[in-house]
Design a protein that fits this description.
- The structure holds 2 protein chains of 2 kinds.
- Chain A is built from 11 helices and 22 strands.
- By secondary structure, chain A is an alpha+beta fold.
- In chain A, the strands form 5 sheets. In chain A, strands 1, 2, 3, 4, 5, 6 and 7 form a 7-stranded mixed beta sheet that branches.
- In chain A, strand 1 and strand 2 form a beta hairpin.
- The longest helix of chain A is centred in the first third of the chain and has 18 residues.
- The radius of gyration of chain A is 24 Å and the shape is globular.
- The termini of chain A are far apart.
- The mean pLDDT of chain A is about 95.
- Classes of the chains: A alpha+beta, B alpha+beta.
- The interface between A and B is large, with 86 and 98 residues.
- Strand 3 of chain A pairs parallel with strand 2 of chain B, so a sheet runs across the interface.
């Protein structure tokens, strides 16, 4: 249920409309055909504990205004931390001057796909407890008590615990008459148990995912933290004693706590249209899924259905309107195994003659320009699909992987390698003890083509990350990926100790 | 906005905690980004951050708490100080406590921040425009990024710290693609002020590499003698620096942990006389003369704010000398206080020559351009994985034979130290993946033997 909240009064008390009006009218008078203004305030708290004692503590607020213009088909952008009318006008001037300087270097006329105007809209994400309303000691005590429980076990030598909590407030206004004010909250917590001994060191981390919740996430009612912490030492002790994996091909049953990251890297980034046409070629990379393949690329097996959206409750990419004033939407990216959709912003949509953007523009700071960023990209469960137990019992000889750890993929999103937190052997339909030193390596379309069973709704989990990187200057974004557990046929497994030449 | 120095004095004057440190960072930046030989984004950016650190004496030690804001109005100072004190009290006596520095003045405290802006591109931008035109005519597509940043840091404290440091830094990155994007190469250059950026030299290098890719030679996965340009060595060893904290090693959680306890300091890691050091007084790549941290982390402590930076030898003649320390971890590990540097110099004693001279030394191997998507696979061995990117060349008999496919690699930079087959002279270079973080890297190109190319990647 969407909890109804309002934007904080102290953000609304800032001179939001007067600054954006000043910037828009100044830039228009200087010849801008389009102007958009963002006034943002983002507060980020970080607390990390090592062996149950604080190691890192920070509480940072970034405030500022960014003005972006199009003049004669060229972009200009300027930003400042100073929220005054004089600065807003000065930024409009600087952005227009920057657009004029840029013109000789621009062979492409920038235009934007049209969007209706949305005057005076507000939107707040679904959460109960503002994490900044919780006292410093309450946050610390929660992490310390979970860490201490782990340290009390003889299987655990050290712990690390980290929580990061964010409140993002954004006022957007443009020369098309749109004006939105939005507030989003998110929390991520990870706790790791470490074992040291003859084996070197081995660790295991909680599987809890980051999400668009407030501090209520840290109770036991949404995610059962205490239960997970109670189970972790035994799982770690078993992992330490487990055999090193025999490399080769195995059937892989992948839990959502691992699969979300494979979706993120091999589908999420590969279906960003700005990447696919080359905008990120110097940095984040391009994509094998180039535009001429839309509608005909066989991305995976017929069981594969992937959507993009900015509307999922508690989704990290969920908004009311994006950073170009486009209303949040939901659409198909892969349907029955075929590529059918991309992620768009207004500029890219216009460039490829799409009628409308699907609302993926985002800037992580007032000092950065909005670019196309990832919506929630999710693999749909099979409505009548198997439960987790049924999936396990369907595997004759395989490995069940939970939790994400190491990840890497090439710049065209073909070749990837992932590790995990837990690797359970499956023999004759039953779990048969853990393995260690496991990595899986595959090519994107081979991997998704090998998906032979998709779990039902009971296996579905919303996973995600706070730290997705893209663009220069670098921008980070938070994004969710929902998925069921899924089974993959004969995937290449490496032994990471053997890879190190030991 | 209020001047940074005035703001610091106003905050310190109202601070009631046992000690208070205020750090103000002012940053100005201009950037240009292009793709398919047209400008895609640009920006003129101004940023400020104000960090207030409150220190509260507690149980013979001290607790610390910090709050960072973009700017602080005079009316908000008391609230900010009380938030920092409350964070300190909640944290309790700090694990990284060490007595705080006092009474030190370094740098020109009173001078204002010297902003940069688009004028820094006065020569570069038209040169880039001409290069784009030539490239379009020759069916070469250009993708890249240019950035110039001025940063100023002020650190003031109740105890008499008045420290200031300025750091101008910039870079140009250029990817060139041709033949329907089937060929791809990359160049990067670091700069303080764009005076050393030659667009003509970038253009020449891009064209030479794209020409080398006319011939394609497919190679399988395997272990190869591999020539690393200095930038890719910087990417590999930046990762090693990040995991080289003394406390992790001492507590058994690092590749630098000794079996049975303690650290590997004193152990010979390299088969050739490799030296790795940081030196704040270096003329070409000066580092900050003092330590400043807005928050504690394994890499540095807020209790070390205002300590003077010193030269640190991390590796000498191939032997591990030091690990990254806070003063607290130095006491824990009984090793000297060797704080993380903000410049890194790596060299092989006696090595000379450039990348071209290394190619001549390789009979049968690979030449890389850059590494990409580097991530930890196994921290016990510092096994990293990643990809090769924008040009891998097959080298036979000391000559480039043609381009080969990209690889996913799995190897450890620590283990690779014992497999160095040749090295060139060190140079100021640009890492690719860590370009935003590691700007002051002076390292050589190297040949590493038996580098583990784990699978072929079809990515281009």
């Amino acid at each position: 249920m969407w909890v109804s909240k309002t934007v904080d009064a102290d953000f609304l008390a800032l001179p939001l409309s007067s600054l954006s009006d000043a910037a828009i009218s100044t830039a228009k008078s200087l010849g801008a055909s389009h102007v958009d203004v963002r006034i943002e305030r983002t507060r980020t708290g970080v607390l990390s504990l090592r062996d149950a004692k604080p190691e890192t503590q920070s509480d940072e607020t970034i405030v500022g205004i960014g003005v972006r213009v199009i003049v004669n088909g060229a972009w200009g952008f300027a930003s400042s931390p100073d929220l005054s009318a004089d600065t807003a006008k000065r930024l409009a001037n600087t952005a227009v001057a920057m657009a004029k300087t840029s013109k000789p270097l621009s062979t492409e006329e920038v235009s934007l796909a049209p969007e209706p105007s949305y005057p005076n809209k507000t939107w707040v994400s679904s959460y109960e407890i503002d994490p900044f309303s919780v006292s410093d000691s309450e946050r610390k005590d929660r992490l310390a008590s979970l860490s201490s429980k782990l340290l009390a076990s003889s299987a655990v030598n050290h712990t690390s615990a980290m929580t990061m909590y964010v409140k993002e407030q954004k006022h957007y206004a443009d020369s098309n008459g749109t004006s939105t004010t939005q507030q989003r909250v998110r929390v991520q917590t990870q706790i790791e148990a470490i074992s040291i001994g003859e084996h070197g060191f081995e660790s295991m981390r909680t599987l809890a995912q980051p999400a668009g919740y407030g501090w209520e996430w840290m109770g036991n009612s949404i995610w059962n933290w205490d239960k997970e912490i109670d189970e972790l030492p035994t799982l770690l002790a078993e992992k330490v004693k487990s055999p090193s994996v025999e490399p080769g091909r195995y059937d892989l049953l992948i839990h959502p706590s691992n699969l979300w990251l494979t979706i993120h890297e091999s589908i999420g980034h590969a279906t960003e249209l700005d990447r696919a046409i080359g905008y990120e070629a110097n940095y984040a990379g391009t994509s094998f899924a180039t535009p001429e393949k839309l509608g005909n690329l066989k991305y995976g097996s017929k069981l594969m259905n992937v959507t993009g959206d900015r509307v999922t409750e508690h989704g990290l990419s969920t908004v009311g309107w994006d950073d170009e004033g486009v209303a949040a939407q939901r659409w198909d990216i892969v349907k029955d195994g075929v590529l059918v959709g991309y992620q768009l912003d207004r500029r890219i949509a216009a460039r490829v003659n799409q009628e409308r953007s699907n609302g993926c523009a985002f800037a992580d700071s007032p000092a950065h320009v909005p670019i196309q960023r990832m919506p929630n990209v999710s693999l749909q469960p099979n409505p009548t699909g198997p439960s987790l137990d049924e999936l396990i019992s369907s595997v004759e000889d395989g490995i069940y992987i939970l939790g994400d750890k190491s990840w890497s993929i090439d710049m065209q999103r073909y070749n990837f390698q992932f590790t995990g937190q837990q690797f359970h052997r499956i023999k004759n339909g039953k779990l048969a003890g853990q393995l260690k030193d496991v990595a899986y390596q595959a090519t994107t379309t081979d991997f998704w083509g090998a998906m032979k069973a998709v779990g039902g709704p009971s296996t579905y989990v919303l996973g995600g990350a706070f730290n997705c990187g893209k663009a220069q200057p670098g921008q980070v974004a938070a994004v969710s990926h929902g998925c069921p557990a899924a089974l993959f046929d004969k995937i290449n497994i490496l032994n990471t100790v053997a890879e190190a030449g030991k | 906005m209020i001047a940074a120095q005035d703001l610091i004095e106003k905050v310190l004057a109202r601070a009631t905690s046992d000690e208070c440190i205020v750090i103000v960072k002012d940053k100005t930046q201009a950037n240009l980004r292009w793709a398919s030989s047209t400008l895609t984004t640009n920006g003129v950016i101004q940023e400020r951050s104000v960090t207030v650190l409150a220190f509260v004496a507690m149980d013979g030690s001290m607790a610390a708490g910090g709050v960072t804001r973009t700017n602080v109005d005079e009316k908000d100072i008391d609230a900010l100080l009380s938030e920092a004190i409350s964070a300190a009290k909640a944290a309790g006596p700090a694990d990284d406590y060490a007595p705080l520095a006092k009474d030190l003045t370094l740098g020109d405290w009173s001078a204002p921040h010297n902003p940069t802006g688009p004028d820094v591109f006065k020569k570069f931008a038209p040169d880039l425009g001409e290069m784009m035109q030539r490239s379009v005519a020759d069916k070469i597509e250009l993708f890249g990024y240019a950035e110039h940043t001025h940063s100023t840091v002020w650190v003031g404290s109740k105890g008499g710290l008045r420290l200031r440091n300025d750091s101008p830094i910039g870079r140009v990155e250029m990817t060139g693609k041709s033949h329907e994007r089937s060929r791809s190469t990359w160049e990067g250059i670091e700069t303080h002020d764009f005076s050393n950026v030659s667009v003509a030299a970038i253009d020449k290098a891009i064209r030479q590499r794209l020409e080398w890719q006319a011939k394609k030679i497919d190679l399988p996965a395997g272990k190869y003698d591999t020539i690393f340009p200095s930038g890719s060595i910087a990417d590999l060893y930046t990762y090693m620096v990040w995991v080289s904290t003394a406390r992790d090693a001492f507590e058994g959680q690092s590749v630098f942990s000794k079996k049975g306890g303690g650290t590997r300091v004193g152990e010979k890691l390299a088969n050739v006389p490799v030296n790795l050091y940081s030196d704040p007084s270096n003329k070409l790549l000066p580092g900050s003369p003092f330590i400043s941290h807005a928050a504690s982390s394994p890499l540095g402590s807020i209790f070390d704010n205002g300590q003077k930076s010193v030269r640190v030898d991390w590796m000498k003649d191939g032997v591990l000398q030091s690990l990254i320390q806070t003063r607290a971890s130095s006491e824990l590990t009984s090793l000297p206080f060797t704080p993380m540097g903000d410049n890194y110099f790596m060299e092989v004693a006696g090595a000379s020559g450039n990348l071209e001279s290394l190619i001549k030394k390789v009979d049968n191997g690979l030449l890389l351009t850059t590494l990409w998507y580097i991530r930890m696979v196994d921290p016990n061995t510092l096994l990293l994985t990643g990809l090769t990117r924008d040009g891998v060349y097959y080298v036979k008999g000391g000559e480039v034979q043609g381009a080969t496919n990209n690889f996913r690699w799995n190897d450890s930079p620590v283990n690779a130290l014992s497999r160095i087959k040749a090295s060139g002279a060190s140079e100021w270079t640009q890492p690719r993946e860590w370009a935003e973080y590691a700007t002051h890297m002076h390292v050589p190109p190297m040949v590493i033997g038996e580098f583990n190319m784990s699978t072929v990647s079809p990515g281009n």
